Amino acid sequence: MGESTLPPPPEQRKRPPARDRYFDLLRAIALFRVVLYHLTGWAWLPVVFPSMGVMFALAGNLMARSLKRPPLQVVRSRLRRLLPPLWLLGAIGVTGMVLQGWSPNDDGHPGWWWIHLGFWILPLSDPPYAEGLPGIHGILGEGWGGELAGPLWYIRAYLWYVLLSPFLLKALRALPWTTILAPIALSAAFEFGYLNLPGERIPSALTDFSTFGACWILGMAHQEGVLKRLPRYVVPSLAPGVAGLGLWYALTHGFKQGHDLDDIPFAQSLWSFATVLLLLHVSPSWTEWPRWLRPFDRLVTLLNSRAVTIYLWHNICILIAATLWDQLWQFDVMYLHFSWLLESSWPVLAITWMFIGSCIVWFGWVEDIAAKRKPRIWPDGSVPKSRKSRPRARRA
Asked: Using an 8 Å Cβ cutoff, are 119 and 127 in contact?
């Protein structure tokens, strides 16, 4: 008999391509670093691993791979995957802010208030939110509206990158390195005063593009094979110099706790560009997970399957975890004997990830609906027992 035409077993069908495993690992590390940074505020964390640059580069790589299909179809697919999780966050968050007294009169322009709410539906600019909300005593800290809206700049920037990607890809194919370096040149123009724009919304969007646009385009360039055409010694020779320039600029412009790379966009653009360039240059071809990474397979799969949900909800999870942990100061035994523990960030980090896990369960299914998949509660790649026990068909 000829070779069997039966499909491979489920565990083989779900196995991602070798290079995707490396990218999945980078995305998982980036997510964990984002949560840790937003909890601790340690200025050195974005230097050790520039998560946002890495995440934009991985998204750009995926976008370039998808653009083998018609651009309009790809853009529509990306938006469909991105927006429903935001809509769920907005439905819950905006409702909560309104119930706590947020109203059109808060900004003095009721008509504009209603129009700006549309950015919760299509975030071409920053959605509005209430500042100074009282919170819920002992559970949710004050000013939670700002924490809720904090991560939305990433969604806005991601949306613009998606919309611009068909044009960026054409430019990349025509003028590769001019296109890659153009965002850094734009960042320099902002930094050194050669370009000044009025208002807040447009300059804010352009600043994000200039800071991380080179990373997004680098991801596209990697997919297009642009980086492979360079001699192997070029990237290891040049990237450390670019990174050093970015770090030097940060150190000479007030880099410290509370004033890190996020507050120095030009330094951020250089450091993120150089780091992403090195990570893409390494890009190992793993036919399977290295032995030391195999225990993390399911965790990495889960983080990648729910990346949008984790990013959107992690700030609120941090705020709730910190508020609950602070209640322990009210107990004399904790205050007198365990103040060192109450001041530590690590217990709050553990509680934060517990709440993030609950958000994955309660809200993560929206990502499956958006991707037109069957909703899953805990998509860590494990095979259900019913499938494991099902006998495989023999070869003919």
From this structure: yes
